[in-house]
Specification:
The chain has 318 residues and is an alpha/beta fold. The protein is built from 11 helices and 11 strands. It has 2 domains: 192 residues, Alpha-Beta Complex (inorganic pyrophosphatase (n-terminal core)), CATH 3.90.1640; 119 residues, Diaminopimelate Epimerase, Chain A, domain 1 (Roll), CATH 3.10.310.30. Helix 2 packs parallel to helix 3 and helix 3 packs across helix 4. It starts with a helix and ends with a helix. Bound molecules: manganese (II) ion (MN).
Length: 318
């Protein structure tokens, strides 16, 4: 069984501590919330005498999953810190996690920093919330959850898998999502909550669809500062628009050029040629089909377009 020893050690630590504080990452997403609040619910429901807190930055779009606790530094005395869904120590939200007596890491990302005395890291899980659900499932004879926890875990599973569409989704993913439904999760309710978008975001989508440009096999958009300001979105929200340009017939590579004060950051995507080497050439890197790169100014823009066209040409000839 996957990670059995690690899970047993984690359960023992949970039993050992009276106060448990659960951290996630900065700018938390659905999986971060799902893992944090799912784990809180699991511990609190199974061991009602323990004090369990969830801390860190807030994310409005997943507010329905739960509300962050505000705790004093004093609370960390003799407490167990558990950090979920975070590979990079610097990204852990609420840096006070180090004040806990011991730290446990539960994550599904490729490890970057080896923090924590127990590290249960398994990159085969498509979401960290699925790890929490799996933990519950494996010890279900002694653990309990309520609907609240099931909603949290289901939300994490759904968001990190792009609603069950991404690589890594397996029979186990659906089994565990099914287990959450068995606990009363209303899939339509969650879909409705996650489907809510701000008017600004919808308007920006309209802009992206109306203003993208094309080269040979390449679709792109220049997301300039004035556009980001006009539509009143965060840089991160603006950057998320790259997904809109994917999957267009005849255009295996797409990108969003996001203008920052001192550089232009590129989100580069492909469903054909590998693009990580191209990203390396432009000060970036990443995966074969999803990478980041940067330009120091728009002067480099024409050369970048040419390089993408070349990558596409070579790919189509192969
Ligand atoms: Mn995640």
């Amino acid at each position: 069984m996957k990670g059995r020893k690690k899970m047993e050690r984690i359960l023992n630590k949970i039993k050992e501590y009276n106060t448990i504080i659960i951290h996630g990452h900065k700018r938390p997403d659905g999986d971060c919330y799902g893992s944090q609040f799912g784990l809180k619910n699991l511990i609190q429901t199974s061991f009602p005498d323990k004090k369990v807190y969830v801390v860190g930055e807030r994310s409005a779009f997943v507010d329905f999953v739960g509300q962050m606790d505000i705790i004093s530094d004093e609370t960390y005395r003799g407490a167990l810190s558990i950090v979920v869904d975070t590979a990079v120590e610097d990204r852990i939200s609420d840096s006070r996690y180090v004040m806990g007596a011991e730290i446990i890491k539960i994550d599904h990302h490729i490890p970057v920093n080896d923090y924590g005395i127990i590290r249960w890291v398994d990159t085969s899980f498509p979401s960290c919330a699925q790890m929490i659900a799996y933990f519950y499932y494996k010890f279900r004879d002694e653990l309990k959850i309520t609907l609240e926890g099931a909603i949290a875990m289901y939300t994490g599973i759904v968001t990190d898998t792009g609603r069950f569409r991404f690589r890594g989704v397996s029979e186990l993913t659906h089994q565990l999502a099914g287990l959450m439904i068995a606990h009363g999760v209303d899939v339509e309710y969650i879909d409705g909550k996650l489907g809510i978008e701000t008017l600004d975001m919808i308007s920006l989508k309209g802009y992206v669809y109306s203003n993208f440009m094309t080269a040979n096999g390449f679709v792109y958009l220049r997301m300039t500062r004035d556009i980001i300001e006009k539509y009143n979105v965060s840089d991160e929200q603006a950057a998320s628009m790259v997904g809109l340009l994917g999957g267009i017939e005849g255009f295996p590579v797409w990108a969003l050029f996001i203008e920052y004060p001192d550089e232009i950051r590129i989100r580069l995507r492909s469903n054909g040629p590998t693009i990580d080497q191209l990203a390396n050439k432009y000060g970036g890197g990443g995966h074969a089909k999803a990478a980041g790169a940067k330009l120091s100014s728009w002067d480099e823009f024409p050369a970048f377009i040419k390089d993408v066209e070349e990558v596409v040409r070579v790919y189509k000839e192969a």
